[in-house]
């Protein structure tokens, strides 16, 4: 397949790409207007980018909002209670059906790489068994990384450590954690040491729900970052949420950022989820409850955005469109400045791929998998402003998804 009239980010002029045997075989600056052969695609001067990435979602809980009851307080904690009730009734079939539906919604929005947290605080590990099957069955749509996520804690859940180890033995790709939810500070710290040991032993990646609270005393990020730094594992470690950082004072952050920089860990912020779940114990003024996204970026750290939930006990909305989360995140994080708008797509493409350690399996370069999107506008700024969407998603050199944008016509009422 040949793609013509492609605009590439941070490059002048138009380009043509050749895709052969599922790989990108060439990318070249277009000298003259090429002819379009059968099966070729004309990008029409729009951006061509590598696929969108969803670095943080909970596919085992998706599409369960209201079952058996709605989260009325809007807090993380009531969400965990509601999920606990629903979790008692999940089956592998039910989990697979819901996850498949949501993966289709993600793929419809140009996402081809997904990291899903799967709750392993379940003696039967039902959701994990289901998601391991979904990972294989969905390969034509997405590459799926599974995080062994201890929703109810590692130290404060019965057999929590054994369940984490078993989940990794069964084939989870990433070790998770939730130190701010353990009963005590000490348990939070020991859970982080345990999960880092497990990751080091097994060669797995790490992605910890870390300090997902407005409590400025929740300081497990420093523990995770120091474990990553001292073991030389930073590039394999992600801290998700870190919303407490939005409540840390500047004096502590100034010290913390030095460690974060030395650790080399990545960050995922889920701005729509956090603006909804956090700030719930405030009256006015109300905190935004998101981490310091722009400040981390300006300090040279890797940060990306995730959706977290689609229609589950923690968040009732969502349709798979990561650009909606990007747009909201840019607002919530005070990132509508011109510089931020010009590079906004980094937050849902390259930065997320780096957090997920996709390496050479990702990116528009010769020899890499022929996975890419044709977007509906010619710059990051214009994609955001126009609320653009991918027009094509190409996977392994074949068209996976094609979208026709609606046409608006005015009647002549003059
Ligand atoms: N579980 C959790 O601890 N935090 C979240 N944001 C979600 C599930 C969605
Ligand atoms: Fe999450």
Explain what the structure shows.
With 414 residues, the chain is of the alpha/beta class. It is 33% helix and 19% strand. It has an eight-stranded parallel sheet with strand order 6-7-8-9-10-11-12-13. The chain has a four-stranded mixed sheet with strand order 3-2-1-4, with no helix packed on it. Bound molecules: 5-methylcytosine (17E) and fe (ii) ion.
Write the layout of secondary structure elements.
Layout: E1 2-6, E2 15-20, E3 23-29, E4 41-42, E5 48-49, E6 52-57, H1 76-87, H2 92-108, E7 111-119, H3 126-137, E8 143-149, H4 160-170, E9 174-175, H5 185-202, E10 205-210, H6 220-231, E11 237-241, H7 250-263, E12 266-269, H8 271-277, H9 293-298, E13 302-305, H10 322-332, H11 338-342, H12 350-355, E14 372-374, H13 380-385, E15 392-395, E16 398-402
Bound molecules: 5-methylcytosine (17E) and fe (ii) ion (FE2).
Helix percentage: 25-40%
Task: Specify the overall morphology.
Answer: globular
The succession of helices and strands, N to C, reads EEEEEEHHEHEHEHEHEHEHHEHHHEHEE
Radius of gyration: 21 Å
| Hetero compounds | 5-methylcytosine, fe (ii) ion
How many β-strands, per DSSP? 16
Uncertain segments: none
Task: Write the CATH homologous superfamily of the largest domain.
Answer: Metal-dependent hydrolases
Q: Indicate the CATH class of the largest domain.
A: Alpha Beta
Number of helices: 13
Q: So, CATH architecture of the largest domain?
A: Alpha-Beta Barrel
Distance between the termini: 47 Å
**What percent strand?**
15-25%
Mean pLDDT rating: 98
| CATH structural fold name of the largest domain | TIM Barrel
**For the report, how would you describe the main beta sheet?**
8 strands, parallel
Strand line-up across the major sheet: 6-7-8-9-10-11-12-13
- Judged by helices, strands and strand pairing, the structural class is alpha/beta
The tally of structural domains comes to: 2
Oligomer: single chain
């Amino acid at each position: 397949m040949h793609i013509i009239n492609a605009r590439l980010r941070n490059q002048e002029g138009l380009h043509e790409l050749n895709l052969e045997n599922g790989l990108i075989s060439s990318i070249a600056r277009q000298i003259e207007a090429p002819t379009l052969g059968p099966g070729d695609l004309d990008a029409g001067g729009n951006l061509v980018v590598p696929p969108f990435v969803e670095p943080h979602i909970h596919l085992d809980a998706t599409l369960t909002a209201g079952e058996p009851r709605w989260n009325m307080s809007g807090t993380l904690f009531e969400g965990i209670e509601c999920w606990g009730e629903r979790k008692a009734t999940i089956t592998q079939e039910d989990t697979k059906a819901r996850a498949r539906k949501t993966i289709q919604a993600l793929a419809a929005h140009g996402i081809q790489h997904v990291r899903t947290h799967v709750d392993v605080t379940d003696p039967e590990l039902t959701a994990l068994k289901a998601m391991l099957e979904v990972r294989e069955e969905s390969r034509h749509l997405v590459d799926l990384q599974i995080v062994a996520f201890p929703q109810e804690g590692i130290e404060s859940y019965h057999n929590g450590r054994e369940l984490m180890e078993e989940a990794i033995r069964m084939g989870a790709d990433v070790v998770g954690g939730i130190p701010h939810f353990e009963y005590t500070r000490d348990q939070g710290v020991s859970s982080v040491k345990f999960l880092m040991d497990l990751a080091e032993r097994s060669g797995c990646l790490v992605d910890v729900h870390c300090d997902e609270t407005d409590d400025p005393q929740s300081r497990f990020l420093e523990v995770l970052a120091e474990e990553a730094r001292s073991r030389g594992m930073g590039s394999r470690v992600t801290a998700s949420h870190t919303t407490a950082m939005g409540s840390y004072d500047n004096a502590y952050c100034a010290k913390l950022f030095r460690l974060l920089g030395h650790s080399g860990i990545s960050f995922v912020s889920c701005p729509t989820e956090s603006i909804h779940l956090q700030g719930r114990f405030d009256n006015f003024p109300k905190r935004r409850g998101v981490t310091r996204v722009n400040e981390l970026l300006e300090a040279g750290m890797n940060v990306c955005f995730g959706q977290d939930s689609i229609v589950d006990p923690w968040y009732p909305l969502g349709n798979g469109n990561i650009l909606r989360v990007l747009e909201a995140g840019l607002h919530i994080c005070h990132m509508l400045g011109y510089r931020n708008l010009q590079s906004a797509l980094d937050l849902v493409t390259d930065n997320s791929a780096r957090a997920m350690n996709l390496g050479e399996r990702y990116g528009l370069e010769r020899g890499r998998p022929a996975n890419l999107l044709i977007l509906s506008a010619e710059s990051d700024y214009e994609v955001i402003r126009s609320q653009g969407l991918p027009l094509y998603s190409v996977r392994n050199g074949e068209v996976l998804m094609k979208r026709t944008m609606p046409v608006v016509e005015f009647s002549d009422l003059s």
